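Researcher: Next sequence.
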Amino acid sequence: MNFQRGRMRDEPEINLIPLIDVLLVILIFLMITTTYSKFSGLEINLPTAEAPPNQEQPNEVNVAVTAAGEVLVNRSPVGGRDVDSIALALRKAAGDSKEPIVVINADAKATHQSVIDVMQGAQRAGLAHISFATQAPQK
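Model: Next structure:
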């Protein structure tokens, strides 16, 4: 007995609406999470000029700090290790120089406090330009 004589058989079909919804969600997610990099640059050709080298050497006060904490200003030892004696030695070494540069050559094993004392001495002496000297590692 065939009870389904008058009915037609349904063909399977693919529903595209959920597929489109999923693709739109993925597209929106990718658009939000993508960072856009804009590389813009100007090509600038700078003018050239020739100038003689600067004959005037900057006024430098060389300060050496040994591993033991001794301070030498222009290769002469400072009487004490306190900030006031360092400041006095730096004032004498600077003399009447216009804006001298204090170059600190500290030993690698020198204490941090001894270098800070030199910096404070330079501040008390009114020397605002401080530089640190280093050397390249030997190969």
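Model: The first strand starts at residue 60 and ends at 65. The beta strands are 60-65, 71-73, 76-77, 101-106, 129-132.
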